[in-house]
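At your convenience, could you comment on the folded chain following this short note?
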Amino acid sequence: MPHRTCSGSLSMAFRRKAPIGVLGGSFDPVHFGHLAIARLALEHFDLHKMLFIPAGVPPHKPDTVCAAAGQRLAMLKLAISGQPGFAAWDIEIRRPGKSYTVDTLTAVKKRFPGRDTYFIIGSDNLPEITTWHRYKALLSMTTLCIAHRPGHSMRVPRAIRGARILRFPSPEWGISSSRIRKLLAEGHSCRYLVPDSALRYAAARNLYH
């Protein structure tokens, strides 16, 4: 066997597998801010793929979800259809009870053995991480990738400074899903805020009016 083939095989054997990106949220509805952050993280960190995971019952925001879980998943799938490297996973909405990130990341690691996980969060989530369920276990199994949210500091709380934390260039997207729901309820167009396919789905079912 030629030497170059053997050496190529060895380099492939020891090459690190690209990580899996994880972006969770209510996606109620999914908007272009979600998609832009996901795409930038995918490219910046050279991820294998980005998993969008819609929340079932968010433990910190149990009463803020408007559309049903299946509807939020449907809008998400429409929004990412045809987008290379993007995938949706319904693990949290199939899980009974509250959705805990530590359980979700454990499931991701089982589904993609041998790959690290990169958990994408906004800087608005930084101050509350220490209140999350089993946050120390969560931080031990993933790398936090922080996207800046306007009006929120990128300062990492002292309690989690030993964690694996990365920052990446992200759009200064200041609008939230709750603001979009309000705009839609008031009859405003959100065409340039939400993908057309998701907007059509929501309008056909009168989700936010």
Q: What stands out?
A: DSSP finds eight helices and six strands in the chain. Confidence is low (pLDDT under 50) at residues 1-14.
